[in-house]
Amino acid sequence: VTTVGRRRLLEGGIAGLGVVLLSSCTTVANPGSTPSPTPQESAADMQLAQLLSVLEQTLVAGYASVNSAILSQSIVASDATRQLVQLCQSHHNDHIAQWTAALTLAPAEPLRIPDPQLAAQVNTVRKARSEQNAVAALMALETVVMQTYTQRCGEIVDPEFRRLAASIGPVEAQHLTAFALLSHHAGLLPPSPTAPGDQARPTSDIRGD
Amino acid sequence: VRPLNARISNRREFLAASGLVAAGAFGLTVPLRARATATPSPTPFAWTDTDLLQTLASIENLAIATYQQILSLPSMLNGTGDASVAATFNTALSHHQAHAQQLNATLNMLGAAQQNGVDTALQSDVVGTNLAQAQTVSDVMGVVVGIEDASAQTYVRFSAGTRVPDIAKIFAAVAPVEAQHVTALLMLEALISDGELSVVGSNQIVPADAVVAGLTTAEIASRHSRREMEGAVS
């Protein structure tokens, strides 16, 4: 894979993934275990892991806000919404714990803040005063996070970070499917055969540049 | 014998060996094209990314064959009398066709053999005689959930296993969709069980048990994932 070809692939959208790969890939690697990352790759991996951890914190901030609004009855929610919001929040808390453990082992600092670049989206969740608006705002946040996992997973070199990203990202997609049923979507499945990545967040979100 | 990854210290060095695939513990190198069609050597690193692509293609082919078989069953048995079940089956089928096409196009680009057969081990484990003996829609759903679950878990594990970021990215983009198939099918199963299929796409109240039925774990597990060389073309 040429440097230019790989960069083009990584920067490109998921939709054109197969085509770009075909035009840029000239080799297939093989061994059954992955090599140790270089120092530069390790640094990039840690930033990606921190970004994913921060995105999970962002989701928990959104879910906690909706849960609180449901409990205080400022949002009147169905039993299905109440249960789904609670379950998703518990999943995201679990994801934070996983990332915190992996980053601590790395060792790297597990950032404990929501993504500052998504503050407006979290505010939209917080301001929601109807079940429908809260669900729509949570779906928007879940979409960003799911796409970030999808887009960034292939960029991670460290085997443990990659395994974690690969096993969590699809669960975020499952949340979206459950929300599709809750939101009365006619189609439970997305039309596209691959998860898109156009809303994926960059690591500059946590670098502040 | 030094493991291959000890001899290839980083990805750049590895990728610099463009067009070559190391043959595991014997320290041999063979052209990719030859490796793709040769009988694999019994080495500690016996599997290649070609094997991963072919195995996933064989799982996709099994999913396609199974959905096609299900769609040919009477609607009383496959549930397609309900529009949401029919739409879910047809969308999932079209996804699997696209995945198989993408995997085989990638194999073709790499000069490796395409995989046009089904994963016979998974077929034996999950489909077996279950479809032929199915008596209810739930029996049919159970078969496709089994395939979709194995597929999602295999994509996830292979995403972590491949050394090639570009291939990991393909796997990582497909895995969420496979996981969504599992969730959609489990939700439909729960709605069928509740007698509430009509809520899909309507403004009726959705039963809570159905909404959470497809969210079984906080992470995708690997216990139902398939082996790396299970669908390799020999």
By DSSP, the count of extended strands of chain B is: 2
Strand content of chain B: under 5%
Strand residue content of chain A: under 5%
Rg over C-alpha atoms of chain B, rounded to the nearest angstrom: 20 Å
Name the overall outline of chain A: globular
Helix content of chain B: 55-70%
How many individual β-strands of chain A?
A: 0
Q: Look at the structure and give the mean pLDDT of chain A.
A: 86
Q: Order of strands side by side in the largest beta sheet of chain B?
A: 1-2
Number of H/I helices of chain A: 8
Shape of chain B: globular
**Low confidence ranges of chain A:** 1-32
Oligomer: heterodimer
- Taking the alpha carbons of the first and last residues of chain A, their distance comes to 29 Å
Largest interface (C-beta under 8 Å): A-B, 80 and 95 residues
Give the overall pLDDT of chain B as a whole number: 83
Radius of gyration of chain A: 18 Å
SSE succession of chain B: HHEEHHHHHHHH
Compute the separation of the termini of chain B in Å.
26 Å
Which H/E pattern describes the elements of chain A? HHHHHHHH
Task: Explain what this protein looks like in three dimensions.
The complex is a heterodimer of chains A (209) and B (234). By secondary structure, chain A is mainly α. Chain A contains eight helices and no strands. In chain A, helix 3 runs antiparallel to helix 4 (79-105), helix 3 packs parallel to helix 5 and helix 5 (119-127) packs antiparallel against helix 6. Chain A is globular. The two termini of chain A are 29 Å apart. By secondary structure, chain B is mainly alpha-helical. Chain B contains ten helices and two strands, in the order ααββαααααααα. Chain B has helices at 4-7, 11-16, 32-37, 49-71, 75-78, 83-109, 120-127, 137-161, 165-194, 208-213, and strands at residues 20-22, 29-31. In chain B, strands 1-2 form a two-stranded antiparallel ribbon. In chain B, a hairpin with a 6-residue loop joins strand 1 and strand 2. The longest helix of chain B is centred in the last third of the chain and has 30 residues, at 165-194. The two termini of chain B are 26 Å apart. Chains A and B meet through helix 1, helix 2, helix 4, helix 6 and helix 7 of A and helix 2, strand 1, helix 3, helix 6 and helix 8 of B.
